[in-house]
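Predict the 3D structure for this chain.
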Amino acid sequence: MSFPRLVALIVGLSVIIGMMLWLVNSIYRLYIQVSFTAPLLGNFLLLLIIVLLGLVIAAFFYYFNLVTGKGTRRGGTKRRPNLKLPEQKTEAASETLKAVRKQVGQIQDRVAQKALLERSREIEASLARGELRVAVFGTGSAGKTSLVNSLIGEMVGEVGAPMGTTQNGATYTLELKGLDRQILITDTPGILEMGTMGTQREELARQLAAEADLLLFVVDNDLRSSEYEPLRMLAEIGKRSLLVFNKSDLYSDRDRETILAHLRDRTKSFIGPSDLISVAANPQPAHLETGELVKPEPEIIPLIKRLAAVLRAEGEDLVADNILLQSQRLGAEARRIIDNQRKRQADKIMTRYQWIGAGVIAVTPVPVVDILATAAINAQMVVEIGKVYGVDLDTENGKELALSLGKTLVSLGVVKGAVQLLSTALQFQVTTYLIGKAIQGVTAAYLTRIAGKSFIEYFRRDQDWGDGGMTEVVQRQFKLVQKEEFLKVFVKDAIARVVDPIKATLEPEALLGTGEEEPLEIEQMEAELVVGEEEDDWEKPQRKLNEEW
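Done. Predicted structure below.
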């Protein structure tokens, strides 16, 4: 109860009690006056005083119980408080889901759009129901199913029928004394199983674990690396976990303590000491001295106590944290889909301008190679890529960005490096004469790709080049397009789009040559690769390209 409301309640009760006492005092004085002359009326007034005092006492206790929340329902059952999750987290989750619904409208893939909407509705339904979901996770040999059966058999409360199979994740419902929320325990499919079906079951198990409020990670020995990684990854996304060492009855006391010490040491960064519990969910039969074979009772009381303590102490926060986590993950998935969609659209724009520019420059080469970088990067490409990412640029802004990146390409030696790289790649498939004719166009396409990829990264980062600036981004993209697998595909496309059209326009005699090759235009171009005054002249090469287009 808030402080102002408590003060108002205390003041109100004080006024009421004061008035009652004043009334009792007044009736008592009247009783003194009439008791000698009218004894019967005096006795009535005395009874009235007693009744009024009883009402005052009853009212006091009633409001006291109301304030402290200890009232009871009919039949003596405890009054359940209204279930209310921590407000800040639920509000944040609701806002995230609203943002996801807005983002879904931007997704063009109808299947992905539908899946995201359905998932958002599931999260909202979970928020409304407020169930506590516990997932039992681990390998199939760790004894997960035996552990679930033992928990259901030992824990107090009604147990519902299974809502699925172990193959798909069997889920049981139960209630725990002292906890007002319904508990759902899911026995997830085993991980690390062989074959395609095993991989599919593991994916389902990981999904169920990620969606649970609390995770029981079951092992039957020290953690293997294949078990450690899923546990660590789930902890990294904020998943609350208990590490359960099952089948402890199969080990001697010394071996059991050694395994527990190893587990404690390996998981100390994300599993607390009290959250590592040793159990024997399905103990092996033992022979008595009489030779009789007996089945010991499951040893899971430590797990039940810890599970109950965690759910009672952290249940509200676990539900709220998980709802918030699920909504945030859904938002991240929506952003990932939108980012991939935008990237595909931007790549199409870049590829279009890449080959348009290559064709124009191949037909009308620029006089100075330093200008090639500036001519290759079209301002309209920058404007269109920005629009894909929701950024409205005018032509002047586009020119400014294009010119700046063109200067960077020249200053870093990317133009010279591209000419040398591409001439070497082309010489094995194209005659020397054709290389000299086509190299500027092919290089222009190559530089346009570097520039386009750099601008895509710039707009993806909300118009931020990062700590290393434009230079680092350009260098990174240049390294990517130097990879052999990319060069093979690029050269093949360049021959089809640039070299072959030039070849078709030339006379057969020009293709055959005279026997004595003239000096390559490439060598002349490399000699010109010195930054000069003309590199600042945007208008001249760009105007020529615009006229050709």
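Residues 495 and 501 are 9 Å apart (CA to CA).
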